[in-house]
Each structure stands twice: as C-alpha cells, then as structure tokens.
Amino acid sequence: MCHQTPTDKVTVNSMNTDEGVRTLPVPGRRCPACLERGETIWVIPGKCCPQCGTPVN
Ligand SMILES: [Zn+2]
C-alpha cells in the first residue's frame, strides 16, 4: 500500500492562517520615510529599510 500522509495540505493550511496576509500580494510594508520621498521600498515587517534604515513594523 502506498499511503502517504498529506503533508502538503498541513503546510498550506498553517501558512494561510497567518493573520490574513491574503489581502497583501507583497509580503512586506512600504517604508514610510522613503514613501515621503516618492520611493516605494518594500520592507519586511520587523526589519529596517535597506535604503534609509528606518525600522518598519
Ligand atoms: Zn526607507
């Protein structure tokens, strides 16, 4: 018998339950400081902007 555990389903499920990120196509936030200068820099929440170093939550 070839009976495998549906590991894929479990993985996808736990990722989707990640606090409603489904509405965001890009996994990150735009740096507010760079946004004011007219630049759109995507920063991973909790990290610092690679351009100006502003921490983004
Ligand atoms: Zn920035």
Short description:
This protein has 57 residues and is α+β, with helices and mostly antiparallel strands. Helices cover 26% and strands 7% of the residues.
Describe the structure.
Residues 1-21 are annotated as: Disordered. Residues 1-17 have a biased composition (Polar residues). The chain has 57 residues and is an alpha+beta fold. It has helices at 7-16, 32-36; strands at 29-30, 42-43. The protein has a domain at 28-57. It has a two-stranded antiparallel sheet. The protein starts with 6 loop residues before the first helix and ends in a 14-residue tail after the last strand. The model has no long low-confidence stretch (mean pLDDT 77). It binds zinc ion (ZN). Zinc ion (ZN) binds next to helix 2.
- Strand proportion, as a percent range, falls in 5-15%
From the spread of the alpha carbons, the general shape counts as: rod-shaped
Hetero compounds: zinc ion
pLDDT averaged residue by residue: 77
Element-by-element helix/strand order: HEHE
- What percentage of residues falls in helices of 4 or more residues? 25-40%
Number of helices: 2
Largest sheet: 2 strands, antiparallel
Terminal-residue CA separation: 49 Å
Query: What is the number of E strands?
Result: 2
Strand order of the largest sheet: 1-2
- Output the radius of gyration: 17 Å
